Amino acid sequence: MRHLSDGNVVDFRTYQYRDSTGIRSYSWLIKLNAVGDTLWTKSFLDSTVHNTYARTLTETSDSGLMLVCDRNRYPDYDPLIIRIDKKGKELWRKFIDTPGREVAYSIVQHPNGDFYLGGFRNTGGTYRSWVARVDDSANIKFEKRYHMTGWTCSFSLNN
User: Looking only at Cα atoms, what is the longest distance across the chain?
Assistant: First the structure.
């Protein structure tokens, strides 16, 4: 859950269910007021894949939200960035098409308006910490992978 500047809170989760083709999932967001009443809920699906996993979110400087999901195109995962306004209206979505299996676990907004994503990349069983910088439209400014001995992953970035 995340406390917002307007005094409300949001919760961003993955909803899983089973259908005739197997287990499927999509990302689900709920906004609650200070006493727990539902203000709105939103579901985020991708019809081109079976699974979309909610990972993290951050409030933007205009009180909207930047949501980070992963879309599973087995065996690959690609980050999915969704920008919504403060009322929950989806403004845009963008996949960061990566050559390996990048999973984003954290996002922070830089004072200049850009965002940093942190997570990991798995290529052939080799795990590397992955960091990307994107602008407010999720255009990649840079992405880097960092390798250390053993398993590395950026689970959290702090601003």
Answer: 48
Structure tokens at 8: 């409300």
Gap between the Cα atoms of 81 and 37, Å rounded: 27
Q: Which of 110, 7, 99, 15 is nearest to 58 (CA)?
A: 110
| pLDDT tens digits, one per residue of 55-66 | 999 999 999 999
Is 66 in a helix, a strand, or coil? strand
Cβ contacts of 106 within 8 Å, gap of 6 or more? 56, 68, 117, 118, 119, 154, 155, 156, 157
pTM, two decimal places: 0.85
Question: What are the angstrom distances between the C-alpha of 51 and each of 6, 15, 95, 124?
Answer: 31, 10, 14, 21
* Three-class SS state of 61: coil
pLDDT at 150: 57
Specify whether the CB–CB gap between 102 and 78 falls below 8 A. yes
Q: What is the pLDDT of residue 75?
A: 65
